[in-house]
Amidase
Amino acid sequence: MNALELARAIRTGERRAVGVIETCLDRVTRRDAGINAVTRLLAQRALDQARHVDARVAEGIDPGPLAGVPFGIKDLFDVEGLVTTAGSRVLADRPVADCDAALVSRLVEAGAIPLATTNMDEFAYGFATDNAHYGLTRNPHDPSRLAGGSSGGSAAGVAAGYFPLSLGSDTNGSIRVPASLCGVWGLRPTQNLFPTEGSFPFVASLDTVGPFASSAADLRVVTEILSGQALGAVEAGSLKLARLGGWFDTDLSDPMAAALNNFCRALSITQEVALPHVDAARAAAFVISASEGGALHLQTLRSHASLYDPAVRDRLLAGALVPAPHVFQAHKLRRWFRAAMHEAFAQADILVAPAVVGEAPPIDAPMIMVGGRSVPARANLGLYTQPLTLAGFPVLTLPLAVEGLPLGLQLVAQPGREDRLVALGETLERAGLARARILED
């Protein structure tokens, strides 16, 4: 049952919010030892809020569009009364948060109920959700495979059926990669559309925050709630779609290549757009991420380096040493690439690209093939997401309706055109071309 169906059942009295929360808590308790999506259950708060929702329904008061819907929270968002860990022991001694992060608060005001905090790569620096302190999050559809990251716990929690909605962050692909590998909907919104207050930063000039969902219809409502703006009506059939070629058409696994070709054939997508110097755009994203991340943590690294995940620590230290002229050139290229992205939309309303090279990599061999070489997945699963990061455009991750392991596509629109992405997603869902993969009891 998706979020809107669940909220409707609770508002009409068909189901009780307390019963829903108890069921979800039981599901996490039974399943999560083998998945490790959740870092902390918010059981008491969730049950207290559920009782409040049920009481309002009994009084004839509408608790909101997401009445009683449980949601997960990536562990870099503030949750009142908890220490915000950002997946690290480094922050363990910080004071507890005195209020919820802005996105958490907006969902709560709409009637939704925080159920759990979720696992992530330390300080959101990675694509695998392989955390030295909190463990590895496994893919619910095949626990021998990665869930992706850095918002892997949030994506896996939706796929595992713990909650129909969750919050994540996306700097270089941290929503898009795990959404694709876990088979759920994910949205990287236009940069600065959603407030980042109360979320621990990674790369302030690139960071975005956004949702995972179990249906496109849920994504519409959540996007409106988180942005505080209604999405306009869009006729999806009138949208012009083009496929991103070049960089985005190499290194694909056979299943991904076949799925992408079938998708384009089903929608009669024949036009192909090639963005210029995508390799340089990806390199610029690497440089900006490394330098800003390193600068943010430099003082703490000097005094508490041993508390960091060694893999993250080394990348942050290397980033702090990036020469300033290189950073300047990366930002200069960012501005140029953004202009090139705008030019690409002279030919289409939506650009289509793979989200990752293929299926989730095995945990015991976390590698992917790039340029004929086997390279580490933790650093390279963002092959197709990192370049698009530079432009700050909105990207919807669409879970394809395919057999076997989940595969996802990126649908890219111009800034502020989330309405087009969501309308197209809803249409594709109704047509049976897109479908979230949620485990059943």
Summary: The chain has two domains: 3-227, 242-430. The radius of gyration is 20 Å. The chain has a mean pLDDT of 97. The first strand starts at residue 38 and ends at 41.
